[in-house]
Design goal:
With 278 residues, this protein is of the alpha/beta class. Helices cover 38% and strands 14% of the residues. The strands form 2 sheets. It has a 7-stranded mixed beta sheet with strand order 3-4-5-6-7-8-9, sandwiched between helices. A two-stranded antiparallel sheet has the order 1-2. Helix 5 runs parallel beside helix 6. The relative contact order is 0.11.
Length: 278
Amino acid sequence: MGWLERTYNKIKRGKKTIDIPDGLWTRCTGCGQTVYNKNLKENLKVCPECGYHFYLGAEERIEITLDKDSFVEYDSKVNSGDPLSFPGYKEKLIKGEEKTGLDEAAVIGEGEIGGKPIVIGVTDFGFMGGSMGSVVGERITITTEKAIDKRRPLLIISGSGGGARMQEGVISLMQMAKTSAAIAELKKQGLLYISLLTNPTMGGVMASFASRGDIIIAEPGALLGFAGPRVIKQTIKQQTPEGFQRSEFLLEHGIIDMVVERGKIRSTLIKILDFALS
């Protein structure tokens, strides 16, 4: 136990009161315990007390999934417009960029996992909830087409609680068909598509490319579905089952193939690729 943790324990017991700098501790959403940030990072942002899986950005996902220094990003050469002149949309795009350091809610490229070449796309919840507009749809499509051209497996990691992006109206909804058509062509070519679902993956993203994997993996406790539990409850006026739309519920009902803890995802992907490419 380090000095900071000992000091924190003293504060909890009322033995000492001091000011602790911000950014050293995080209160777990799952169990309410306070976790030292260094320990949380070393544990891949999974609470060591209860196993709650915290949000990871796209760049963090790539770092913990791919072989070191193997990632090469694709330049999609497209940027978000404001086709509907939707109030506040441009400001939201700027805030998303400031928050994540990304120019959009999806990062695409290629790399290796366990020495096996793959093409990868990652959506980032931190950028407007990972919602899918024209740029995200285009990038997912580009990623899929690259996998076809290079004859490589495709891995898409989804963290898109925002679903389709309402600020782009029907243009956003068109991306559901566009990405689904690209995935259909990938499958026609006999190539492997692995979909990894993280908390949350909802709406148009879940209803299109995210749910079409040959193998669908989810992190524990992830919220997965179309409309959220509160919307469903308000609509049907009934209480939804306990754990409804969580990973474990979907696994039990045959909608996904496996639930894998974050620390075991990379090794699981290596096993899948070894089997599929042997």
